């Protein structure tokens, strides 16, 4: 049954195999011979007629040679190649087909495209970009759509090929399906951000016992300014971090020190196992995550630090900490208070938060009629229970070091 389908699914299927596996020397004469021998099965569209195109769902086919992609629910996974480098999906009567094939390392992606295009028939659309190309066409009965991408590995770029074949009669219905599958596939094209981060982190200055200083812009750009000199005037864009491990390259939960964050309106010390991740779009705060998460050792952050300063914004309508606490900190639907202290304009809290994720939340809030500063230090319950005394000590250091004034370079 499979061999019969290969003979009817156009020269395009064979042309795709040519681009995917250079060792397969399939000529156009062979492809024409195959198409001439096709049977009346070309007109067997009963499986397409049974598809509810208005309600197609998708499954995520994961872990295929470094990528994942979406598969529409009317296609069944029917075969893998013997080497595990190709997966194929069909409809019941095999009038629709999809495959994804890993073709190995490539050095000249443009040559792969040129060869594939030359061996493709009835081409109606083709486009080449730096990390992907697409070729599609039809013979009046059957449409083919090919997309090939290259993605970065540790020692170069590797080729993955997507092919979809379906009846011309249902081209309009397949348009959104092909688009969905394409976008799920092509997102892996190009450089690997995690490899880029790994390369960047390997070139970062390592702790040497001396204080360093970095400047962070409101566009998330980090600039290393060298060894910190308290007598030197620094040109700081948005905020600065001073400490012995400003990039969180060497610190762990068991072995860490403290960096000092200096942000317009406030400053504080925080544990140096936290790494800068972003400045929120509102541009009046900063976010840090634990370095285990940033190094992809855990699926979600175990520790997160958020610092918000409204020093440059219009103040809220609260004049003191008690008024703010009465309005914002008495919501018990997803909050279970462990400890709260109100001292002048300061609120120090430890809460167990249930939504949207379960965390132990340490917070410092400074409220006056001119400004608000908010510090939240979220810890997963597992990490908190395992290191309770450590996190309580960290919170005490943060409380003592927190300064709401505009001591930008302190």
Descriptive keywords:
Lipoprotein, Protein Transport Mog1p, Chain A, 7-stranded antiparallel beta sheet, alpha+beta, 410 residues, signal, elongated
Total helical elements? 11
In the CATH hierarchy, what is the architecture of the largest domain at level 2? Answer: 3-Layer(aba) Sandwich
Widest sheet, order of strands? 3-4-5-9-8-7-6
Please give the domain count.
Answer: 2
- Major β-sheet profile: 7 strands, antiparallel
Query: Kindly, what is the distance between the CA atoms of the first and last residues, rounded to a whole number of angstroms?
Result: 76 Å
| Rg (CA only) | 29 Å
What fold name goes in the CATH topology slot of the largest domain?
Protein Transport Mog1p, Chain A
Shape: elongated
CATH class of the largest domain: Alpha Beta
For the secondary structure, the number of strands is: 21
Low-confidence stretches: 1-42
């Amino acid at each position: 049954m499979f061999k019969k389908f290969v003979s009817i699914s156009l020269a395009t299927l064979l042309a795709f195999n040519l681009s995917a596996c250079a060792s397969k020397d399939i000529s156009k004469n062979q492809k024409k011979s195959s198409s001439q021998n096709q049977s009346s099965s070309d007109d067997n569209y009963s499986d397409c007629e049974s598809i509810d195109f208005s309600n197609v769902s998708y499954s995520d086919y994961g872990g295929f040679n470094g990528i994942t992609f979406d598969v529409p629910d009317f296609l069944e996974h029917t075969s893998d190649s013997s080497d595990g480098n190709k997966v194929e999906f069909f409809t019941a009567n095999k009038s629709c087909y999809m495959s994804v094939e890993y073709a190995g390392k490539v050095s000249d992606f443009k040559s792969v495209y040129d060869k594939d295009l030359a061996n493709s028939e009835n081409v109606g659309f083709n486009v080449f970009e730096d990390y992907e190309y697409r070729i599609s066409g039809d013979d009046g009965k059957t449409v083919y759509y090919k997309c090939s991408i290259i993605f970065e590995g540790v020692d170069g770029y590797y080729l993955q090929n997507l092919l979809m074949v379906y009846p011309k009669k249902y081209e309009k219905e397949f348009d959104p399906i092909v688009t969905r599958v394409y976008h799920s596939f092509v997102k892996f094209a190009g450089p690997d951000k995690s490899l880029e981060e790994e390369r960047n982190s390997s070139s970062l200055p390592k702790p040497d016992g001396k204080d360093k200083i970095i400047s962070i812009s409101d566009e998330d750009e980090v600039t290393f300014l060298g060894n910190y000199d308290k007598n030197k005037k620094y040109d700081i864009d948005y905020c600065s971090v001073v400490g012995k491990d400003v990039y969180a390259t060497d610190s762990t939960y068991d072995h860490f020190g403290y960096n000092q964050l200096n942000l317009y309106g406030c400053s504080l010390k925080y544990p140096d196992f936290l790494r800068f991740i972003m400045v929120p779009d509102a541009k009046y705060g900063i976010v840090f995550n634990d370095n285990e998460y940033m190094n992809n050792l855990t699926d979600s952050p175990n520790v997160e630090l958020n610092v918000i300063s409204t020093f440059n914004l219009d103040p809220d309508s609260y004049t003191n900490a008690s008024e703010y606490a009465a309005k914002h900190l008495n919501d018990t639907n997803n909050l279970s208070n462990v400890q709260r202290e109100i001292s002048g304009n300061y609120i120090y809290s430890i809460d167990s938060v249930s939504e949207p994720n379960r965390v132990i939340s340490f917070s410092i809030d400074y409220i006056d009629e001119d400004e608000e500063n908010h510090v939240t230090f979220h810890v997963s319950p597992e990490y908190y229970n395992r290191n309770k005394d450590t996190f309580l000590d960290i919170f005490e250091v943060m409380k003592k070091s927190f300064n709401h004034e505009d001591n930008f370079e302190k």
